Amino acid sequence: MIALPANATLIVIDVQQAIDAPYWAKDGPRNNPGAEAAIAALLAAWRRAARPLVHVRHDSREPNSAYRPGRPGNDFKPAVRPLPGETVVPKQTTSAFVGTGLEQLLRAAGSDTLVVCGAITNNSVETTVRMAACLGFRACLVADGCFTFARRDWNGVLRSADEVHALSLANLAGEYAEIVTASTVLAAVP
Q1: What's the pTM?
Q2: Burial of 67 by CB count in 10 Å (0-12 exposed, 13-18 middle, 19+ buried)?
Q3: Which is the most buried residue in 16, 36, 173, 179, by most CB within 10 A?
Q4: Residue 166, domain member (yes or no)
């Protein structure tokens, strides 16, 4: 069980249709196929409890990116789509804090605890969690509410999505974030 203040903010990162673009899985399939369902459950709990939440949307400037605004991939996945009036923070880098106003929004709300989930574990999620910790926020990273893809390491060895995910979580555990599960977080939200 974890303790979450009433103003703990749920941050959902880059769960957009672009994540299904074939180029992501070029080295192998993703892990955590239930991540979207876990995120949807977290969103439902936050909405019921009227807790603060932020949807982060990647708006790529790269010409061939599936995340580019105006392309279908820029849209949120239906299971985690923001409701009218919910905060959407667009970003153009891997960090939800760079050039977005997210830090100011959180500070104005007095929220110093973040519950983070989304895509991709070793990319925007990891970057955002690291920066959150550096800015003095408490980050709780939902392990089964994130996912990534298989990829080759620096030496060319193919690593499965589960291996990439586990290493990213290990990099963050303790110093940057508390690693939690969706069920643990849901138990902490009345």
Answers
A1: 0.96
A2: buried
A3: 16
A4: yes
